[in-house]
Amino acid sequence: MSEKDRRQLLRILEDSYVLDMYVGRVKKNVSPHFHAAFQILLPSFDGRSGQITDAEWWKPDLSDTPPPKAIQPDQHFNCSVLDITGKAAVCKVEAIRDGRLRYTDYVTFLKINREWKVVGKVFHQHFAPDNSQEGACEIS
How far apart are CA 93 and CA 103, in angstroms? Predict the structure, then answer.
């Protein structure tokens, strides 16, 4: 893993991924760091499961997909694992709010024409949809 690739991926995670996934941008201004074939594979989440493609995720009138939530002052993100092999990479991103681990995202990247692109995401939700905090983990 080159230090240059590592820095580029961390910058994409901070400047693009977190903003697009957790804050939300104006739909037409989605970061160019996302590949056109980007998709999210959903576990059972808010009564849904399956796959959301890039076209579906960013569609302005997609009524059954909730918009990303705003980053709160007590929310932060950790890249606890970054593994790069050649032109493929994966990062484990932990979304923490109120001192509790809320989501663990596994973000995949491909290096295409010398540029890293976010190509996919799978995630785990660490709390029950009814906000009961079931399964939440304390961060010490």
Answer: 8
